[in-house]
Design goal:
Blueprint: H1 3-7, H2 32-35, H3 53-60, E1 75-77, E2 80-82, H4 96-112, E3 127-131, H5 137-145, E4 150-155, E5 168-172, E6 186-192, H6 201-211, E7 212-223, H7 239-256, H8 266-271, E8 278-289, H9 296-324, H10 329-343, E9 350-360
Parallel strand pairs: 3-4, 3-6, 4-5, 6-7
Antiparallel strand pairs: 1-2, 7-9, 8-9
Length: about 400
Amino acid sequence: MDPRKVLKFKKGTSTPRGEEEEEDTVMDTELQPAGIDVDSEYDNYIESEDNDADRQSFYASTGGASIASKVTSYRYENGRRYHSYRDGTYYAPNDEAYSNYETIVHHLWLLTLHDQLFLAPISNPERILDIGTGTGLWAIDMADFFPGAEITATDLSPIQPRNLPPNLHFEIDDANSTFTYPADHFDMIHMRGLTGCIKSWPLLYSQCLTALKPGGWLEHLEFSVETSASKTSTAYNDQILNAFSQSILNVGTHKTGMTFDVINEMHTLLARPDSGFVDVHTQTFIWPIGPWPKDPYLKDLGRWGERNWCDGIEGWVMALYTRLLGWTYDEVKAFVKDFQGVIKDRKGRLWQEVRVVWARKPFEGEAVGGKAESAAGEGGNDGMEIEK
């Protein structure tokens, strides 16, 4: 069976989409493993692949210099470096290792969207805002793609490269703070990978609505912290994977008040009549974890999906577990090692969901509160269709 007949990935061009017709990507995650042929060559654990030349050359291409800033008196803890501005707001490090990890994430999204930088139907924008830009890779690509647009990118840490397109500038800012941008200012606002970082998503969405021009688009991309596997997988109901996802979800709910489950709330929040948005669309994609699929495209996606977890896990949990759950440094390191072993087990055949939601600010006088469109139902998997 051709996996694309089940996954129904949109065959995008090598450039971001402008005004062409939209096609929702749909998937039933229960049927997904049966729809992807497994490459038996990868049934055994392959440790050496974790350090191949692909990663080194890919990292080397990003550069490492940071912009000058007054907020570089960083917090050093358990061998990692963290932001100092609004200390403790964000759980992940801002060191070189985590910057390298963000390169993997950017590459994964480009693979997933077939080199498209966005799915919202924008064209000839004047101003774009990227909230929580990290190392700024998406903002840099957008500045190159739209040289006539003014791109603003914000983050808690000044860890972006020095050599930037002239139409791009970075600002030190906290996404939880009150916006200082004028109303009706941006043609597009972009957010990616902010799960576990936002105190009030309705408030942030509301501020985005105000800052957008009438007809402007908000696009929000997130990943699930939960992995999935078929019942025949060695990782099905794995205790380490379950311990991670449940601990992270509980930390967000009971400790920080900043949910790690926003992927399942995005569509519902934006589609509510009182959100102020219209034309709410959702696409859900699957990232294989490990190069277990037979299909070359999915195999490549899975290779980077594995690195996403193996390279990201320590940064995700070190501060949260030691600061909030009382773990020691050695306990976290042991957990990370065991976790990586499960992720790299080829017989695990794991995958995870990622999701893109985009919504438009209505034009003046346009009715608000109409039925929103979604490929994934409102905020979850209910209503997903399977392409026969």
